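User: Predict the structure for this protein chain, please.
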Amino acid sequence: MKRLFFFNKQFVLFVFVSGMASGVNFLSRIQINHYFSYATSIVFAYILGIITGFTLNKIFVFKTEKSETVKRFIIFVLVNISAMAITLSVSLLFNNIILPYVGWEWYRAEVAHFIGIASPAFTSYYLHKRFTFG
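Assistant: Here is the predicted structure, written as structure tokens:
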């Protein structure tokens, strides 16, 4: 029986490295939010997370030749634009609708953003494995 793609060492490394990039994304959003709106802060923080994620994935998860770095970064950004749309949509949905509906106020923006960041994990792994670093 064939193992599912997320039960392998590479996926575990991807989740770990992406978790680190997500930490950059998450913590920088909190700081950026002091100067910009919630949605704008998510977008700026996502850009910092993309740069961190690409660098760490290239070094530790999907080892590739240096000569293709620019091409791979462009594809990485394109894949992450779709993931950013998911992250932003899910974050706003939870922050503005779901969490208030259930009466959740404790760190509502942070909880919503965390859920948003986690939401595209499987699709991002598949797309990066297949297109960015494949």
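Helices lie at 9-32, 38-61, 69-101, 108-118, 121-132.
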